[in-house]
Amino acid sequence: MSEREYLDYVKEHPDEDKRHLRLQMILANGSVYPHEGQTTLVDRQVDVKTGTLRVQGVFPNPGNVLRPGEYARIRTIIATRKDALVVPQKAVSELQGNYQVAVVGSDNKVHIRPVKVGERIGTDWIIAEGLKPGERVVAEGIQKVRDGMAVNPKPLTATAAAQPAPAAPTR
Questions:
Q1: Model pTM?
Q2: Neighbours of 92 (CB within 10 A)
Q3: Nearest one of 142, 141, 132 to 94, comparing CA atoms
Q4: SS3 159
Q5: CATH number corresponding to 3-76
Q6: Which fold has domain 86-153?
């Protein structure tokens, strides 16, 4: 875990007894291991090359499903953002380190607006500043819209939101 993630976690959980991270394991086939793990040790030194701390955890293993040498990814919840404003990553465009979204006004006209982004959560961004709850943003066809352009907005369906963006053609 990165040093920053660890410090954020400690800030949100100042009580020493509550600093045990709950762990979730994603197996090599992409499935989630049904039993939750828990940290047993957080290394006392930050690796100067990577800026990370080594974390050790244990998982129950009924039926000996887990085998030595298997590949898995581990994830945990470090922080909870109450009332976070979240938009699909594909609705946010970056230009020279600045982020922006195309907001659809009540007149169905697009207004390009700068935003400050927070963390990425799966396929979504947390928007820290520049957008208000309830505002509509363009998530499909973001490359085609321009400031002041009239659009016919449609809600983003759950299946469209879950689909990854198409890959760029290769040569």
A1: 0.56
A2: 21
A3: 142
A4: helix
A5: 2.40.30.170
A6: 2.40.420
